[in-house]
Structures are given as C-alpha cells and as structure tokens.
Amino acid sequence: MPFYLEIIICVSLLIGGVFLLVGSYGLVRLPDLYMRLHSPTKASTLGITGVLLASMIFQSHLKGFLSIQELLITLFLLITAPVAANMIAKTALHQRTQPVEKTKNPELIDIVRDRESPKQSQHEE
Q1: Residue 122 banded pLDDT, cuts 50, 70, 90
Q2: CATH of the domain at 51
Q3: Tell me, what's the pLDDT at 39?
Q4: How many domains does the chain have?
Q5: For residues 10 and 16, what is the distance between their CA atoms, to the nearest angstrom?
Q6: Which of 87, 85, 54 is nearest to 71 (CA)?
Q7: Is 21 strand, coil or helix?
Q8: Cα 106 from Cα 114, distance rounded (Å)
Q9: Weakest mean pLDDT among 34-48, 62-76, 110-124
Q10: Which range marks the domain in which residue 69 is found?
C-alpha cells in the first residue's frame, strides 16, 4: 500500500475518532435531552463518516475498484440521523420533558407544543 494512502487513512481515522470521542463525551456531559441530541447527530455522524471514509479508501485499494458499501452506509447515516433526532425532540416535547433552567426562551416550548399542524389550520378555513 502506498505511503500517501496510509497517511490519508490514518488522518481520516483520527479525525473520525476525535469526533466520536467528542460526541460521546457530549452525550454524557450535557444536562438535558434537548442538548444531548446535538452530540450523537452532529459529532458522531461526522465521526462515523471519517471512519467509513477510511474504510472505503482501504477497501478500494485492496479490491482494485471503488468500494461503495461504505459510501452507502455514510449516506444512510447522514439522512437518518437528523430525522431520528427530530423525532426524539418531538416526542420529548409532547411528553412535556422540561429543559434546564438556563434555557433561553422557555415559553417557546409551550407555543411549539400547542400549535396546530398546517393541515389542521387549512381545514378550518
């Protein structure tokens, strides 16, 4: 394996590992559910992308052609992680999970929770 590929793979693994470490640390340290959603969706998604990118480069070199399995996994994660975080946040909102006291504009939580969907307001007109 050429030295430049080893360097690229190592750098990609290190960057991915750092993002995963930061995401895991944030998941443990952040005080409430709403803040904890940022760690796994942002930092960990970037971390997994770095690790899968390194795997894609390595496998492509070994096989002699482009390995797209890792690319498909990365695309799937980049699409599903924000959607899952949004669903978790909506569930917490409707379960009336309270944020920490330091949260700015807590009155907006009640406004968002009690608003009608656009489909309901169109039917009433």
Answers
A1: low
A2: 1.10.287
A3: 82
A4: 1
A5: 10
A6: 54
A7: helix
A8: 14
A9: 110-124
A10: 3-124
